[in-house]
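Teaching assistant here, posting this on the class forum so everyone can see the example we discussed in section. The complex has two components, and the goal was to see what a joint structure prediction looks like when all of them are supplied at once.
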Amino acid sequence: MIVADQKPLEEIYAYLEGTRRVLIVGCRECVTVCQAGGEKEVGLLAAALRLKRQAGGEEPLETVEDCVQRQCDAEYVEPLKEAAAGVDLVISMACGVGVQYLAQYLTDTWVVPALNTRFGGGSVEQGVWEERCGFCGDCQLDRTGGICPVARCSKSLFNGPCGGSYDGKCEVDESIDCGWQLIFDRLKALDRLALLAEIQPAKDWRTSRDGGPRRVVREDLRI
Amino acid sequence: MSQSPEPKAPAAKAQVKSGSHLERMFAAGHFAVTGEVGPPKSCSSKSIREHSAAMRDSVDGINLTDNQTAIVRLSSIAAAVHVMAEGCEPIIQMTCRDRNRIAIQSDLLGAYSLGVRNVLCLSGDHQCFGNHPQAKNVYDLDSIQLIRAVRDLRDENLFVSGEKCRFNPKFYIGAAANPFADPFEFRALRLAKKVAAGADFIQTQAVYDVERFAEWLRLTGDMGLHPRVKIMAGLVPAKSAKALRYVSTVPGMRVPDDMIRRMEAAEDQEAEGIKICVETIQQVRELPGVAGVHIMAIAWEKVVPEIVSLAGLLPRPKLESAGGGNAAAGA
């Protein structure tokens, strides 16, 4: 999933200057799962912003709360037009994709993000999420035992660990597992170390970052 | 390895790859010695020229670090020009951290046109250790892909893209190896990959733990790598017990506890550091597969001639001048 976390309240509060009525929109997909921008977080953020406005002795802030099934889907975003028409500002509590969909469809309203979109990953323990996919667009996991060197090696190396791998940890920080140690251990356990002996050639990064936004076109699905 | 100053006859007349002095030293069967200069955090060439002049008669080549520990410094290629002006042979380091394949190949062409003939291909220290931790790293290529790129340019006249290079740079290709990092079992395999990619010589991480180094040499020897690559044992003379203790905490470095205790007990720690370094040179020289030493006296460059002398490695052998392609001879 897309993992996100909330921006500092001060940063979000600064968006509110000159506003009286704001719409705060959550998303029921990834950000609900990582507890950053679901229905509950929308309610909490709305209350926090109202209280902060009140504590400052300013004119009260009116918040309108909503949470759609998917902010990255026009079908769920378009119906928000009506609610957005009557507000000074829309605060999206989705990932960066959701923010952009809101901005695209709510053409007359200023849309701002309440979250920082962090990475593609998952939960590793209660309250901790970690990156897993580098979104390089050309999956190499068949060669690396299902452990991604793009996302999990600090240097995104393709031919094994650098000289900074020590006791299973990365030289960058001892809280970081060396991605290549993990790959090595798994390939060894499954008797596939021969894969590591192959030299991986220079990667074609066009699938990762190319001209403009990357697109997937499925002719079989087009109408 | 023999202590005799007489060069060992090379097994067969190897084909000249770059004509660099370092390559020819190995080809003549000599035990090679290289030093290292860290370019300054300024545009002054003074320290580079002074260190080069001081090392001139003690080493066969001088490494120029490429923004080591991710700290902005005078470029390794520009520094190499100053080294050549002092009559020494440069070995430029090139990391994958700061350049994509376009910039790397462009810099290789430029370096060769200036007379540089040796390049050491490295991943590069992560930017979090340097003075611009906010920087975005590149790693378009990794060190093994970089080695292959330099070799393909030299041997196949090909850029990474597969396009032909009309006048191709012919570098003597170096790579690093860390016998002290993990997973240990993979370290020999990693060397094999570097050799297969095209590495001609290796400079290792600093050796303090000779036992572990010997074990790595045994593994790499068993893989049949030694006749195909010249391995230079890396050495970092310790100036104090405190410095040595710090080194022991750096990921990927191993320092035996008795060595630290020995330094702590020494009255003159600088002298003891030199003594340990000289002893280590003598020990590694005995190990099969070691073709030279690379002395990294970081911020203590002036000690290099003394160490080389005490290790019995002076005078450095003189070679007949290269038939082209040596220092200062531009392409």
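For the discussion questions: The beta strands of chain A are 2-6, 21-27, 62-68, 89-92, 111-113, 115-125, 128-133, 169-170, 173-177. Chain A has two domains: 2-119, 135-207. Think about how each of these relates to the inputs above.
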